[in-house]
Design a protein that fits this description.
- The chain is mostly helical and 502 residues long.
- The chain is 71% helix and 1% strand.
- It contains 24 helices and 2 strands.
- A two-stranded antiparallel sheet has the order 1-2.
- Helix 7 (134-143) packs antiparallel against helix 13 and helix 17 (349-367) runs parallel beside helix 20.
- Mean pLDDT is 87; it is low at 1-12.
């Protein structure tokens, strides 16, 4: 009897997913693009506007399915804008075509926006923080002072996230810095990574970052997207201090709610651990004495923070100008904290490209009347024409939260939705509507990525530690989202109304 052949079998081809399963998102996006292009052009919508909406449909599907890398999607969107808009009648003069040169210029128009300068500069600051280890030193120093009781550690984790949000203007960078520290605390408590304490602490770390994306203008790229559109549409800006005054109460109240939601819904198995503070102290000792580069960066960061806070009060320099100046100082000989060669690999250039093209697509939606037409549709469907500001705030907030469930990037969501939000607010007949203020408040809602792990890159960074299940993130995130909506409406009736935004 012949023996069975037990030699290894090559199953690589069998396991490799099919081309269709790997690229279904691209096919769906192309189908969405073609469908919108082939629809009859509605009355009042220019051909260029319809084609811009088709590109928006393509972009939204690509961003929702993550079928392409964000940087690649931005390049594809730019190419689509160049050809589809280039061969469209010019909305300002329908007798002539826009031309591919003019359309390509529009596609890269976002790179001339000062908000892009701020985003790029913020990424360099975040890289400097990570490179020098200053962010880790600040976090460990705060945690070393809060004590070893679990409730104090949770408060300390929230406090760390709050402080770091002022100094590291990149959410993913902040969370990437804090995750190893959080894992060190979990280890010091001697509990399993799958324990309730571990999951509670890690979710607290990442949700704090999302909360303070709302509270601080420079904490997240999506805020800069909104600022960019506001500057384009109205020739106005919102200063760092104005943003903080409006958003800080929300951030503080949400941080308090976060503490109670996490400790009640995921109660830790232990109350305290002897030696926990010593473990954090050991991590600080491992960092060694504060390096000269850290001291320089701390001085630059605190000076920059002071400049942001006094914009429009003690000086007229805008946030982008002061931030790019700080980055320039970081590279200067003698003052320099790192070299270009050291910084370049740490910068997520794809974020910069997505930001620029996202601004361009939003600008094109406004210029070709696509956003206005879509906004009129939203206004009619939701009965917003003569609604109160508070009703509009509530309806649009729920709309943005639902839409966010399909997005893995708040930057992409802001790029797609803020031009439509602006057009909706301009299309209502509510007397005394503060369009700029309402746009800012709705931008706060864009950062509400509390429910799904895939709603934000920082969520994925934390999820990668395998300290919690996705269902724990969802069930706590749903409660946080309900609290956030209640706060939006409550502040809309009171505080934001008193400030004149609602």
């Amino acid at each position: 009897m012949a023996l069975a052949d037990h030699s290894p079998v090559d199953v690589s081809n069998a396991r490799e997913p099919s081309w269709l399963s790997r690229h279904w998102g691209v096919l769906l996006a192309v189908a969405g693009l073609i469908t919108v292009l082939l629809l009859p052009t509605p009355t009042g919508l220019p051909i260029a506007g319809q084609r811009t909406l088709a590109i928006l449909a393509f972009a939204v599907i690509i961003w929702m399915t993550e079928a392409l890398d964000y940087a690649v999607s931005a390049i594809v969107i730019a190419a689509l804008m160049a050809f589809l808009l280039g061969f469209s009648p010019n909305p300002a003069n329908p007798k002539v075509l826009m031309g591919t040169s003019a359309a390509l210029t529009l596609a890269f128009n976002g790179f001339a926006n000062t908000a892009l300068v701020l985003v790029a500069s913020a990424l360099f600051l975040a890289a400097a923080m990570t490179s020098t280890g200053l962010d880790k030193r600040i976090a460990l120093n705060i945690l070393a002072r809060v004590g070893t009781e679990t409730r104090n550690v949770v408060i300390g984790t929230i406090l760390v996230g709050f402080v770091i949000a002022f100094l590291v203007p990149s959410t993913t960078a902040r969370v990437a810095c804090l995750v190893p520290i959080t894992l060190g605390i979990i280890s010091a408590f001697g509990v399993n990574r799958k324990s309730a304490f571990a999951g509670m602490l890690m979710i607290t770390t990442v949700q704090t970052a999302s909360i303070w994306n709302v509270g601080i203008k420079t904490a997240a790229a999506q805020n800069m997207v909104a600022i960019g559109f506001i500057e384009k549409a109205f020739g106005k800006t919102i200063t760092w201090l104005d943003w903080l005054v409006a958003a800080a109460p929300f951030g503080i109240l949400m941080s308090i709610a976060l503490y109670f939601v996490m400790t009640l819904m995921m109660p830790p198995e232990i109350k305290s651990v002897p030696g926990g503070r010593d473990a954090i102290r050991k991590s600080l000792d491992d960092l060694g004495p504060m390096k000269l580069s850290e001291k320089k960066l701390l001085v630059i960061s605190l000076t920059l923070l002071a400049c942001w806070a006094t914009e429009g009060v003690l000086h007229s320099f805008d946030t982008s100008t002061t931030t790019i100046t700080a980055v320039a100082l970081m590279f200067m000989p003698g003052i320099g904290i790192m070299t270009w060669k050291e910084a370049q690999p740490k910068i997520p250039w794809g974020t910069v490209i997505l930001f620029g093209i996202g601004i361009s697509l939003g600008t094109a939606l406004l210029q070709t009347k696509g956003a206005v037409w879509l906004a009129d549709l939203v206004v009619a469907e939701f009965g917003l024409k003569h609604a109160t500001s508070l009703f509009i705030l509530g309806v649009m907030s729920v709309f943005l939260i639902v839409i966010h469930l399909g997005f893995a990037s708040a930057t992409a969501l802001a790029s797609a939705m803020i031009p439509i939000v602006i057009a909706v607010l301009q299309g209502v007949a509510t007397p005394g509507m503060n369009v700029v203020g309402m746009t800012m408040l709705l931008q706060f809602v864009v950062s509400f990525g509390f429910i799904l792990v895939v709603n934000a890159p920082q969520n994925m960074v934390a999820y990668g530690t395998e300290t919690f299940e996705a269902r724990d993130f969802v069930r706590t995130g749903l409660i946080l989202t309900l609290v956030a909506i209640a706060l939006v409406m409550g502040l809309g009736v009171t505080y934001w109304h008193w400030l004149g935004y609602v």
